[in-house]
Specification:
Structural class: mainly alpha
Shape: extended
Number of helices: 3
Number of domains: 1
Distance between the termini: 29 Å
Largest sheet: none
Strand content: under 5%
Length: about 100
């Protein structure tokens, strides 16, 4: 997780992150990553959030990005999300292959 915008509001006080891996990196502008050379592989991308169909109208009206960024739509946003997910899956697969000696 990164770019949490902790400076905005207190809504993260109740934010629950379900455990899905042995480690969680809080990257971005909230800390410094160091002393992990050789033990940790860090990959990353924007990973736009996916906006479900039932929320698209509300998000389109309430999130300034969709009115202030030329040609940026909920559809573009969701397409970017899917591309990011596919990229992450491929990178994780490549890391696994490298780890087991398949290149």
């Amino acid at each position: 997780m990164s770019d949490l915008h902790l400076e905005v509001g207190q809504h993260y006080k109740t934010f629950i992150i379900p455990r899905a891996a042995p480690y969680l990196v809080l990257a971005g502008d909230i800390g410094c990553l160091r002393n992990y050379a050789g033990r940790v592989t860090i990959i990353g991308c924007t990973l736009w959030s996916y906006i479900p169909k039932e929320y698209q109208l509300w998000v389109r009206m309430k999130v300034a990005d969709f009115s202030r960024i030329n040609d940026w739509t909920v559809e573009n946003h969701n397409t970017e999300h899917l591309q990011d997910v596919q990229w992450l899956q491929q990178e994780i697969h490549n890391i696994f292959l490298k780890k087991i000696g398949v290149t």
